[in-house]
Design brief:
Structural class: mainly alpha
Largest sheet: none
Number of domains: 1
Number of helices: 10
Strand content: under 5%
């Protein structure tokens, strides 16, 4: 029990340090997140003037999930990769702390950045398109697993990437893929056969399916499958990260 308490104390201290280090960027990042949500929900809606209620629901839930993607697969790996390049990761790993505590503290702090974008997106969808949400309490579990699975993959990308520039290029490709070639803003059935198959091994597919299942009555969702898939991505990526960061330290 003392070990658990000590690890929790380490995590709290490191999370506090992360907040202090990022405090000047918090407001800017949140504003970018909310602006991105505004652009997706309203901007794409203007491009489709006679958008149906079902299409608007797909768009809104997809845009909300995009907040998880942006934070977990773009911001977090870039923050961690920058910490590697600047020597901050090595500095923290020289301290008498749990090797994974630093990464988990960074994950927790960046996860908070996703919340404003999600809330703003859902409110905009309700106000602009009159979407009636059917909120299932399981959305809390879905949100946690979505953030954990996407962030776990993001951390793995950062740890495997040799340079921050490589990480930045990879994360830009991820955003491009999610926006245009993944079943996030649109149903899977509208994608070509090849993209339907590649979506099976992509974490955002299960994050958005879980969000649809717990926030709407959209057909074709598979909540149990998505929860298991996100759990699998989380466990696998965290285990791989633990191995790599122990070697790093």
């Amino acid at each position: 029990m003392n070990a658990v308490t000590d690890y929790a104390r380490q995590f709290g201290i490191l999370a506090n340090l992360q907040v202090r280090a990022m405090r000047t960027d918090f407001l800017v990042i949140m504003m970018i997140q909310m602006s991105f949500s505004l652009g997706l929900v309203l901007g794409l809606g203007y491009l489709i003037p006679n958008i149906s209620g079902e299409a608007a629901t797909y768009l809104t839930i997809g845009a909300a999930t995009q907040s998880f993607v942006t934070v977990g697969l773009v911001m977090l790996p870039n923050f961690l990769s920058d910490a590697k390049d600047q020597g901050r990761l090595d500095y923290f790993l020289t301290m008498p702390i749990g090797r994974e505590a630093y990464v988990f503290s960074m994950l927790a702090v960046t996860a908070v950045l996703a919340l404003p974008g999600i809330i703003v997106t859902l409110v905009l969808g309700w106000a602009r398109y009159g979407i009636g949400f059917n909120i299932d309490p399981a959305v809390i579990i879905v949100s946690l697993l979505a953030m954990l699975s996407l962030s776990g993959v993001g951390v793995t990308i950062a740890m495997l990437s040799p340079q921050q520039q490589v990480t930045n290029s990879l994360t830009n490709l991820i955003i491009f893929y999610v926006l245009f070639f993944a079943p996030v803003l649109i149903p899977t059935s509208q994608l070509p056969w090849v993209l339907q198959k590649t979506a099976i091994v992509m974490p955002p597919t299960y994050a958005v399916d879980g969000m649809r299942a717990t926030l709407t009555n959209l057909p074709g969702t598979h909540l149990a499958t998505s929860l298991l898939a996100m759990l699998g991505f989380s466990v696998a990526s965290i285990a791989l990260t633990a191995v790599m960061i122990r070697r790093q330290g």
